[in-house]
Structures are given as C-alpha cells and as structure tokens.
Amino acid sequence: MHPANPQLDPEMPPKPKTPQALFISWPRLLADLLLINTGCVLCAIAINGILLPRHFVTGGITGLALLIHNQVPALNLGLIYMLVNVPLFAMAWMAVGRRFFVYSILGALSLSLAVAFIHLEIPLDDRLLSALLAGLIMGSGTGMALRSSGSQGGIDILSVMLLKRFSISIGNTVLVTSIIILLMVGLSYSLEALLYTLVVIFVSSKMVGVVVTGISQRKAVFIISPESKQIAREILKSIRRGVTVLEGQGGYSGRPEKILYTVVTLAELGDLKRLITDIDSGAFVVISNTLEVINYRIGNQPHW
C-alpha cells in the first residue's frame, strides 16, 4: 500500500528543485531596472563629484578599482570595476541564484557606464561636509540597487550572501568589509584622507541599512488580553494581517492565557495599537523590531 502522502515515502527520489524564474513580471522588471539604474547614477555622482576630486577613497570593490585607477590612470575606472567583479559574479550564481546573478551583471554594467559618462561637479569646499554628502548619496544609491532583484556587484553580492545564509545585516557587512579593504589600500593615501573616508563608509553603510530594511521595517507584536479572541478577529478584519494564537500560562495566577502574535508594517503599527486599546485598554503588549521577515505577503526582503 502506498502512503497517503507520497512526499513522506523514504524510497521515493526527492522532487527536483524548480529553477528560479529570471523575471517575475514585466512591471517588476521595469521597477528593478529603474531602481538599479537610479542607484548607479547616484553612486556615479558621488564617485566623480566628490570622491575623486577630493582624493577620497571608498572601501569595497569600488575602493580597489579607485586604487588601481590612481596607479594606472590610462585604464578606465568602469572597466576596472567590471574586471574585479568577475569572481564575485561566480559566487552570486552559485550561492544566491541566477536571477540575482543576471540583475547584478546589469547593475555592474550600469554602474560602470554611469561612472564613465556622468561627471557632475558638486560645489562643496568643506571636506567633512563632502564626506557626509558622499556617504548619503552612495548609501542611497547602493540601497536602491539592493531593493531590486539584484545589486551593483562588488561587496553587495557578499552582503546578500551573508544575509541569506547567516542573517548578517547588509549594512554591517558593507561597513566591516569596506574598512578592511580601506586598511589594505590605505598606504597610498594620507591619514587625513583615510579619516574622511571612514566617515563616508560609516554614513554609507547606515544609509544602505535604512534604504534596504529601514523603510520597510516590520514589527513583531505579542498581545496578552482576556479579549484575545475579539482582538484577533479585528486584526484579521481591519488590518488584514495574520495572527497566531499561542498557549500560555500566568506565572503567578497559574491561569491559562491566550497569547496573540502578529507581524505588521511600521505604517500599520499605529492602527494596531489603537485597535487593541479600544478593545482592552489594559492589554499587555510587547512590540519588537525584526531583522528580516520572509513571507510572500508581509516579508520585507527583495526577491533575490
């Protein structure tokens, strides 16, 4: 007799994994291309408008490319960036997926072209303000590219790999790897330039985190109330978010308790708190930040 669920039959070969679709939909493709290209334009403005004129350097693959360009000015900076990305592209194909691989190639090409052709002068004399502005612009551009289904190549690929495998935040990976590479290439720059560059790296890494996950921050909420059934019903009806009912017990009273668990967006949090207060003003509510949420409805990570 065959088992009722063929998936549980140990003698059956495992079901082959369905290949990842390259493109989710045409609207998603256009949105991804817009995010990638806009992000690359912003990074090119920061590189050509601030970093190069003020002799700053940045970490990551861009920092290595800038170092090589300074040593061999005849080589185009965009071409150097593409060549040093080749090993990371191989990692993107094997560790993340072919969609991320294709989009990252498009992102690296877009950044290379943007750096080669976009030269916008930014009239700032103060070097500290220049470093802050460069970090804001580069972090925003990198974050926008990562909000798509791909990246700009370079350390972005490593950041996504570590996030998917070990849940290490993208901003932390960018910060640490950029500082390591900065120390490696720092012998060619003055101490003053290195210190200003640290400002660029720190601000940029924080902006990446804000753009990739901060704007789409999710909140995990625990609710303990005698009116848990009504609260759960209103969350499902009014906010249209799922609710999980957990079984608990009061540590002092020993009475059984119903604990509600739900995840909402930052924009929905205010409505949720008002909903709970209207039903039970004495409810015990715990609201926590989330590092990442993976789900087709409430998830906050791009479709890498």
Care to describe what's here?
This protein has 2 domains: 26-214, no CATH class; 218-289, 2-Layer Sandwich (Alpha-Beta Plaits), CATH 3.30.70.120. A hairpin with a 6-residue loop joins β2 (244-249) and β3. The chain has a 4-stranded antiparallel sheet. By secondary structure, the protein is an alpha+beta fold. It has 11 helices and 4 strands, in the order αααααααααβαββαβ. It is elongated, with a radius of gyration of 24 Å. The longest helix has 26 residues, at 26-51. α1 packs parallel to α5 (98-117), α2 (60-71) crosses α3 and α7 packs across α8 (170-185). Residues 1-12 have low confidence and may be disordered.
Q: Which stretches are low in confidence, meaning pLDDT under 50 for 5 or more residues running?
A: 1-12
- Biggest sheet strand order reads 2-3-1-4
Distance N to C terminus: 42 Å
Helix segment tally: 11
Rounded to an integer in angstroms, the radius of gyration calculated over CA atoms is: 24 Å
Shape: elongated
